[in-house]
Write the structure tokens for this entry.
Amino acid sequence: MKKMKTLRNFLIGIFLLFAFNASAQWITSGNDIYNSNSGYVGIGTSTAPTNLLHVARNMTGPQVIVQNLGGGGGAGFTMIDDAWSGSWKFKATAGGGFKIRDHTSGLDVIVIEQSAAANCIYIGAGGGIGIGTSTIPTGYKLSIDGKVIAEGMEVQLSGSWPDFVLDNEYKLRSLAELEEFINANGHLPDVPTAEEVENSTLDLGKMDAVLLKKVEELTLYVIELKKEIEELKKQ
């Protein structure tokens, strides 16, 4: 019986020794617990973990959930790279960046990186966004390669709205002067030519202002012609 007790105490000691060695790397500090070793940590895997944190489980739901219970607007998931000047960086390529890739087609769906590539959605280092393209012209924040459909769109103009045309001091071209300009240039004054539109971009806000200006000028011409017709009737 004494030998059995001695053997039992020996086995308990060995177990405690292994348990102590296994937990010696974990450090507690108040409510915090962390691991200071340079090895890998595995959760749900019976084989050696292959990364700093290896989570593996056969399940239909998400494997990892990061939830902000405080509702204070803090970051849900943050990565800090001491070798990089930024506060976070998801590095998937040599140039650095974060990618969400469609597993079936193998195509990039969302890409945030500093090097240009053909992607579905591209966010450049300067804050520009490309949809269907990674080419964002200088001075622009949004570039779309394809059609756009929307229920509404608002454009905030920095210039004046052309109601000045209806001011009594506005100098309206005579119809003879307008005809002369059209014959010489092949387009209305202030309106871009077909060649300019084909070889450049079209500012919708400015173009709407130009069209309104032409409508107001046309209205003044109609009023003027009506007065002339009424005068002829009297004669």
User: Anything to note?
Assistant: Strands lie at 26-29, 32-35, 41-43, 53-55, 97-101, 108-113, 121-123, 129-131, 142-144. The longest strand covers residues 108-113.
